[in-house]
Amino acid sequence: MPPVSPDVASIRSRLLAWYDAHARALAWRAPPGEAGGIDPYRVWLSEVMLQQTTTAHATPYFLNFAARWPTVRDLAAAPDAEVMAAWAGLGYYARARNLLACARAVAGDHGGVFPDTEARLLALPGVGAYTAAAVAAIAFDRPANVVDGNVERVMARLFAVETPVPAARPELRRLAARFVTDHRPGDWAQALMDLGATVCRSRSPLCGQCPLAADCAGFASGAPERFPLKAKKADKPRRHGVAWVIVDARGRVALERRPDKGLLGGMLGLPTSDWSTVPEARTPPFPGDWRDAGAVEHVFTHFALTLHVRTAQAAHLGAYDWRPAAEARSALPTVFAKALDRGLAPALFL
DNA sequence: CATGCGTGGGC
DNA sequence: TGCCCAAGCAT
């Protein structure tokens, strides 16, 4: 049972009115009142890019993808390597592999038309509970309980939920469900997320501008920023490794395609040693005149990495995928782009 | 249900 | 600087 009994209709009407006046203009979004007016392909593409990703980071990628592959059929027909390279730098690369798998499923099994129900959307690769609900609500204006991190935060504050996440998730989801109706469901979902993103922010919430402050138990408590409570996180281990920057006589760099599963799966990368918890000497891929180019630091979700960089000139070896340096850099995940920059820097002084 | 999976920005 | 955080999903 929630600690208070909210006036659902009043909260809904005030938040929708706030959204009508304050909705963010985003590249993939229809103005308030026009939910359902956007191509479901663009809604889906934006939602996948926005998973655990800020709007500022996702926006240029969205514009590039939407221009380069204007329809789901175009994306489905694109070569894997081009899509992975276009995703480079956005992170969580399983999303890009699932994006392609989903586009091909829609093109192949659904006649190029996105399904319009939550249940059938949920069956698509890379589409989970949040994304299925978001596409159903935003693209098709169907009632759906759209619960992302913003909505969890708004609910946790509105009802001053004292249970920490992730344990509180089922309760927060039930609380959010009480507000879902068939009136403007797409705008409701976006209104809640916009409120969470711009007013009911994680740090320093702007309660003075919040249309729901009068109903908010978190605001009444005097410390709304305390919600949602969080379980303590485990410490991040550090790993060490070596990346080898191998350059041929024409200035091309040796790359390798990484296996589909696991860290940076499916992406191009520099040849590397194992990344283990102890720093130790690593045997280079072939004997030669290796130069130490220093190290780069990079922090992944669950570990920090010290990556030492060593460089060598080499004859063109068939075992690698050789790319001009600029092309290589643009196709690489950030950790390898940093290592490549480090490895090529000494060449400036030769 | 816990874990693995990126990155850049803010303080 | 070192943490925390941001429109989650798959296994």
Question: Count of DSSP helices?
Answer: 14
What portion of residues belong to β-strands?
A: 5-15%
Give the class from helix and strand content and strand pairing. Answer: alpha+beta
CATH architecture of the largest domain: Orthogonal Bundle
Element order: H for helix, E for strand: HHHHHHHHHHHHEEEEEEHH
**What's the number of domains?**
2
Instruction: Find the CATH topology of the largest domain.
Output: Endonuclease III, domain 1
What kind of sheet is the major sheet? 3 strands, mixed
> How widely separated are the two ends?
71 Å
- Total beta strands: 6
CATH class of the largest domain: Mainly Alpha
The gyration radius over C-alpha positions equals 24 Å
Offer a few descriptive terms:
350 residues; alpha+beta; Endonuclease III, domain 1; Nucleoside Triphosphate Pyrophosphohydrolase; three-stranded antiparallel sheet; 14 helices; 6 strands; globular; DNA-binding; iron; metal-binding; NUDIX_hydrolase-like_dom_sf
